[in-house]
Amino acid sequence: MSSRLGNSWDEKLESEFSQEYFKEIRKFLAQEYSNFKVYPPMKEILSAFEHTPYENVKVVILGQDPYHGYGQAHGMSFSVRKGVKCPPSLVNIYKALEYDLGIPQSNCGDLTGWADEGVLLLNTVLTVREGKPQSHANIGWERFTDSVIKMVNDSPYPTVFMLWGNPAKAKAKLIDESKHLVLKCVHPSPLSFYNGFLECKHFSKANDFLSKHGRTPIDWSRRGE
């Protein structure tokens, strides 16, 4: 896992990468990747930061942990590579997007286009062992993503935080709601989707907020290019 991202996150995250807890994450991951199938591929763990530089962040979509099936996770929450079947959570996100903005559902699950628009696709935990959701919870990732949320909170630009699922919603305490918009909802997984996610209208609410504060809205119809 490279610590060089090639953009403004390098300076922001340098202090985290040098701390003892992050060195422990690296040690743990070295063992895990050597002995088990772990997702995403090690070189893609920090892909979300590579695609969305700090100053470009307009929206943070915060999920739980990466997809734990073969070939799905590639370092951006809810996204899968082109040609990979959309997992149920992403299908449900597309359903909610169509319900909200009328954007037709897509077979392309690559959300790189969103990342390039300014959507930081972040999970609370950034790695997972194959077939074992939450297997890398409590190894230090939560501390790291807490720091990331605080950094975005400190940005001078009004930002939208979409917190989906209980681990994500727990981050709300780190966000200044007098400056930013915090949108909370159940996780889009099939287990909770019909408990309010379909009708949440987070996408239009985000764009309304961005427009109101002089920022260009997100083109939610974009996919990987």
Keywords:
single chain, 225 residues, alpha/beta, four-stranded parallel β-sheet, two-stranded antiparallel sheet, 35% helix, 11% strand
**How many DSSP H or I helices?**
8
Kindly report the spatial arrangement of strands forming the biggest sheet.
3-2-5-6
- Overall 3D shape: globular
The residue ranges in which pLDDT falls below 50 over 5 or more consecutive positions are none
Largest sheet, strands/sense/barrel: 4 strands, parallel
Distance between the termini: 24 Å
Number of strands: 6
Strand % is: 5-15%
**N-to-C order of helices and strands:** HHEHEHHEEHEHEH
Written overview of the protein:
The protein is of the alpha/beta class. It has eight helices and six strands; from the N terminus they run H-H-E-H-E-H-H-E-E-H-E-H-E-H. It has helices at 9-17, 20-35, 47-51, 88-101, 112-117, 141-153, 166-169, 202-212, and strands spanning 38-39, 59-63, 119-123, 128-129, 160-164, 181-185. A four-stranded parallel β-sheet has the order 3-2-5-6. Helix 7 links the parallel strand 5 (160-164) and strand 6. The longest helix has 16 residues, at 20-35. The radius of gyration is 16 Å and the shape is globular. The chain starts with 8 loop residues before the first helix and ends in a 13-residue tail after the last helix.
